Automatic annotation (TrEMBL):
Superkingdom of the source species: Bacteria
Organism of origin: Paracoccus lichenicola
Protein name, as recorded: Gfo/Idh/MocA family oxidoreductase
Gene3D superfamilies for this protein: Dihydrodipicolinate Reductase, domain 2, NAD(P)-binding Rossmann-like Domain
Annotated ranges, domain Gfo/Idh/MocA-like oxidoreductase N-terminal: 1-111
Transmembrane segments: none
InterPro entries given in the database record: Gfo/Idh/MocA-like_OxRdtase_N (IPR000683), Gfo/Idh/MocA_oxidrdct_glycsds (IPR050463), NAD(P)-bd_dom_sf (IPR036291)
GO MF terms, alphabetically ordered: nucleotide binding
Length: 303
């Protein structure tokens, strides 16, 4: 199937383009971006022009940051094309509800992707936890914003989500593997004095689960979750790619390169099957953290 990619920036070039090039399902037929290009692919700078010039492209994948994404997403669906969204799927929950309703009315697929759910050991972790009682859980998600989002000022603007941009990846795994849904109980959010989004957050959930998100970690990066249950201990490390049971490595490696190929394979299945997938559970927890969170002011942040 032909597909167009919109927002040719860091994640489009790091992950989407290689995943599409390696896929038997997809033919990258056009890009839309004001500055970004992919060699050998027809380039547009505006979505409306691409949609009217290329009626032969039935699927559009959006890699824009969340705040400018809604108008492009709405244009895609109104043009009767299938839509794939980078995480988080919108700037607000209402936006994504509106898009899901529009997709249904138009009879097209919407896929709100959560790339971390495609990490190698997530399915095995869910299977292992099934039927067990969780006594406590600890999520540590600490990464270096300068490495993963160099110069991306949008991430610290209102709606950019700050540390919840990576933190929502942890929550996408959490909401996929737990036998029973969690709810947020309280949160502490650290906002740099010169920014509108948090650079660190500590969250407390039901079921004795806590999370520690930090965007200031230099050196080795940490994407771990650990659970103590009535039947032993389980840890998911490397962003869901490596599974340990009672301290023993049982599955997976430290490689994240399978996530985006799996997302595009899933999109192909959804389109072929006439189905949609727009689970908002991770985003609900983030919205609740902003609703309930205590706000602390910390040192200015500069890229
Ligand atoms: P990015 O490079 O800053 O943005 C992607 C592209 O979107 C930009 O190159 C720009 O293209 C366009 N864009 C940026 N701001 C815009 C605006 N205000 N209006 C219209 N277009 C705008 O961001 P990214 O790191 O690729 O992240 C994009 C999405 O992918 C985010 O939702 C993020 O959470 C997700 N993601 C990122 C990573 C990562 O490691 N960076 C990993 C997984 C998921 P033009 O200027 O050419 O139009």
């Amino acid at each position: 199937m032909k597909i167009a990619l919109v927002g040719i920036g860091k994640i489009a070039l790091d992950q989407h383009v290689p995943a599409l090039e390696a896929s038997p399902d997809w033919d990258l037929a056009a890009t839309v971006s004001r500055h970004g290009r992919v060699e050998g692919v027809e380039a547009f700078t505006d979505i409306a022009t691409m949609l009217s010039a290329r009626p032969d492209i039935p699927v559009v994948s959006l890699c824009l940051p969340p705040v400018p994404r809604f108008d492009a997403a709405q244009a895609v669906l109104r043009a009767g094309r299938h839509l794939m969204l980078e995480k988080p799927p919108g700037a607000t929950l209402a936006e994504v509800h509106a898009l899901a309703g529009l997709a249904q009315a138009q009879g097209v697929t919407i896929h709100a992707t959560w790339h971390s759910r495609m990490a190698e050991a997530v399915g095995a972790a869910r299977d292992w936890l099934a039927g067990k009682t969780i006594h406590e859980g600890r999520i540590i998600w600490r990464e270096d914003v300068r490495k993963w989002h160099p110069g991306q000022d949008w991430i610290f603007k209102a709606g950019g989500m700050g540390v919840f941009d990576p933190g929502i990846n942890a929550l996408s795994i959490l909401t996929a593997i737990l036998p029973d849904p969690v709810r947020l109980l309280s949160a502490d959010l650290d906002f740099p004095a010169n920014r509108q989004a948090p650079i660190a957050a500590r969250l407390q959930f039901s079921q004795g689960i806590e999370a520690d998100f930090d965007f200031r970690q230099e050196g080795p990066q940490t994407w771990d979750m650990e659970f103590r249950t009535d039947a032993g201990a389980m840890a998911l490390r490397m962003g869901g790619n490596r599974l340990e049971i009672d301290g023993r490595h049982v599955q997976g490696a430290d490689d994240i390169m399978g996530e985006y190929p799996a997302l595009y394979a899933r999109m192909a299945d959804l389109v072929r099957g006439g189905q949609s997938d727009a689970d908002l559970a991770p985003m609900v927890l983030v919205a609740d953290a902003f609703t309930l969170g205590r706000r602390n002011t910390v040192a200015d942040f500069h890229f």
